Amino acid sequence: MARYLTTIAAARLISPDFPFGTMIVNLLGCFLIGFVHSVAVVSARISPDARLFLTTGVLGGFTTYSAFNYDTLSLVEQGQATKAAAYAAAMIVGCAAAGVLGVWSARALLQSV
Alpha carbon 68 to chain centroid distance? Predict the structure, then answer.
């Protein structure tokens, strides 16, 4: 439901011509997965079971490769191959960067506490 609402909001608030909703969901999800994983590994504040539930269950359900694939293929089918390639590259690089930022943020937070 959160993924759907984010996609609808992004289409209305940003643009319906580009899959910003899927991008936002995946970037946020990758950041949060990196954050939760680091908090669980570096401290005992999140149990292994809770980490697994949050990262694979909640955040795995929030993010989606299938929507990313669908959006990319839709752009290609619409004759927008350049836009599709830019979207795919931004998603891959952006999600990796978001995951790293999540790890760094968790470590910085834990060091300050």
Answer: 10
Count of domains forming the chain = 1
Query: Domain range for residue 85?
Result: 23-112
pLDDT for res 77: 92
Eight-class DSSP state of 43: S
Predicted TM-score (pTM) of the model is 0.85
pLDDT in tens, 64-82: 888 899 999 999 999 999 9
Question: Is the residue at 5 inside a domain?
Answer: no
- Sort 25 into a burial class: Cβ within 10 Å, 0-12 / 13-18 / 19+: buried
Token pair, residue 57, equals 């269950």
pLDDT over 90 (residue 105): yes
Q: How far apart are CA 111 and CA 78, in angstroms?
A: 48
Q: Are 9 and 21 in contact (CB under 8 A)?
A: yes
User: Given this model, what pLDDT does residue 99 score?
Assistant: 95
Helix (H) / strand (E) element for 19: namely none
